[in-house]
Write the structure tokens for this entry.
Amino acid sequence: MEPTPVSKDFWRRQCYSRLMKITVKASVRDETRSRRMTFEVLVSSENCPDAPEVRYIQNGVSGSLYCKQDEIFRLNNVRNVRWMKECQPVQREGESISVDERGDMMLPEASESDAGKYTCLVDITLNGRTYTASRSVQLTITTDPMIIGTVQVREPQQQVVMVKVGERVELKCSAYTGFAEDNETSMYWTVDDSFTEDHEELTESLKYFHERGNVYAQSTLTISKVRRQFLNVPIKCIIWNPLGKDEGVAFLQEADHSALYMSVSAFLVTLVLAASFYFLKVDLVLYYRKLLRHFPKQQVLDGKLYDAYVSFLHPDNLSADVTASFTLNILPEELEDQHGYSLYIRGRDDCPGEAMHDAIAATVHQCRRLIIILSSDTKTRETSPLHENQNHLCYEQKVGLHDALLQNDPRVILVEIDGPVDYSHLPESLCYIKRKQGALKWKKDFLGTQKLTKLYSNRNFWKNLRYHMPPVPGRRLQSVV
């Protein structure tokens, strides 16, 4: 059985007998770009369709009715805009209506007679054919005050957000809307003046929140994947209601990793330089002193006769003692013969018959450094019995350490040789110096000879000792060489 043919008039009657909703996909092109749009069209047999919303205006207050056909106006082919009341041209007593460029109608001093269904009719020409788009709104005049306020965007305000291309980003917009939530407030986003519906990566959400009796709207623009066309263009959050309009602007900028790399590089360079200075500090200071010798200046006289006073415990048998061999032979050979220092070594430079205590005090005050040689045999506690050499050593240390601790002159250099030193048998002042600045250690394993060529194996000791010694005047070094 063949189906009964259905006439076109039948379908036309079915469509026009009720309001139908059709989803339309369109492609719009201009001189610079093209874009796709998806929107819904309500098809009705009536010239004035049913009103999808209700608009409230307070009695005696001027208000606006909004055409809300921005998609039609953006086609740039609008020929005429007309407003109808109950499908009849608007006629009212008193001041007449006015229509702005967006098609919105201003209703001066609304009264109860203005209530009813209003329809905005927009005539448009496409491809040589004329169409009429219409939208209705139901106006209700109320005697209750309208609780709405002038909208104001709080953020963003010229905000710059650093992003990576391809990542997910959320932008938030908050705005003041008044003292109560109302359906007259609209909030939306644009990206480079295009609507979010034009980009599949963009979605919007809206919520209201209350703060200190005020109502704020917060809209979130979610960008699932940042594209390069979203960079460095204005991204606007727009809000409006019958009392006003405001907008905030944000910009997406690609994160500049070069600045981060430069910061990390600068930090690493600083770290390397600091570490290099820490480990090479002694070599750098000695090299600096060496350079200064080539630029001799007038030496500042400090009244000192010696660079260092060398104090050590004299053993009974000098020829067989490691401490005496180091102090009387190896130390002066390195510092005096090779580097031009002037040393005063008790037991070598003192004169027989002189008042020992007076000579020690006077000589220590004439020295820039006090080198104290310590070994495992050094014991100078006053509680233990002292022979003459120990008594002299104890006095040297008392005089030198007293000035060193109070005036930092002369500065003290501790040298440990021949194994670990037991500081429990030494004065408290020596223990304090040890804890504060440590001691240089001369390794006994290297004491097999007194020849200079054999001393390079212990060169770190000599470099550290020279680092703690004062600089040698250039003229004195030239006389040694």
Observations:
- Residues 257-292 form the longest helix (36 residues).
- The chain is about 25% helix and 35% strand.
